[in-house]
């Protein structure tokens, strides 16, 4: 495709995106300014976020979760409580075309790398890199690739200083990949509040959902074989978008989380920035005990889809023992689906990051989950 060419992708071509509005509680769409109502009625508060095999009714009475069907009650509460902190997920409203603009095109030996812009909402353009392998035979799986705080999407796509290059490496492996810039990082300097978002986290979720829309619309992509991957900031954002978007069949998170209770000894200041969740401070006083959701619930909300967790033993941001407790709690939910083998957590030596050998192991997991053999096309 020539540089600066605009490609208009009609909404009706997105082919039954399957966002399961009932499961998402607030629905999903591409409305204008983001002014969706808060989740209602107010979901129950769960004091123990590690105890997942229980759900509470409107009176606060606890009921056991004994099967996958009963888990859906708790899952709906998890998603609603996430939105109390992040702000509401935009509801379906006036639908906005992606209006993809190709800014630059570069042909590499095995793939084409394009710098693009796509529309998340009216007046809201998101910069990204889109990588398409050469020689594809039929539709191929695709991956949403989310960068860390210090690594805008160009670095994961193989540009700039050395960095975990999973956008490039997965494309070299035969996946179509997209790597958007996160809110207030790189070239994405959109103010979330100016567009009506309560947090940068929810703006990021919306941008990432729209990137999945874009992948699902491409003729090269099999919309039933989509996943996401990220490290650090991208590690927890992969979890957030996957919890909200069941189209993502496999999730890889590296160095991305521990329990809010354990994060930096309970000091949640780092989570209160504009690009994260300001309500953690303004509504919940930075008190982990008052927060209505935590990471074991987010992990469990992804069940029974494939989830790969890379948690280094000496991560300076996230405590290993806390990660293990979160994983153990989520494993109980995976067991309800008889899908325990789909939840894999590895705890290798090393610090915060996603080294090459760890990425290769994660790619093999993705290959199995999405039905690829890992060979280049």
Give a nutshell description of this structure.
This protein is α/β, with parallel strands linked by helices and 377 residues long. The chain has helices at residues 21-24, 68-86, 153-156, 166-172, 200-217, 233-244, 279-282, 295-301, 320-336, 356-370; strands spanning 6-7, 54-56, 62-64, 100-107, 111-121, 124-133, 140-146, 176-180, 221-231, 248-254, 306-310, 343-346.
Overview of this structure, please?
- This protein is of the alpha/beta class and 377 residues long.
- Helix content is 28%, strand content 20%.
- It has ten helices and twelve strands.
- It has helices at 21-24, 68-86, 153-156, 166-172, 200-217, 233-244, 279-282, 295-301, 320-336, 356-370; strands at residues 6-7, 54-56, 62-64, 100-107, 111-121, 124-133, 140-146, 176-180, 221-231, 248-254, 306-310, 343-346.
- The chain has a ten-stranded mixed β-sheet with strand order 1-4-5-6-8-7-9-10-11-12, with helices on both faces. The chain has a two-stranded antiparallel ribbon with strand order 2-3.
- A hairpin with a 5-residue loop joins β2 (54-56) and β3.
- The radius of gyration is 19 Å and the shape is globular.
- The two termini are 20 Å apart.
- The model is unreliable at 1-40 (pLDDT under 50).
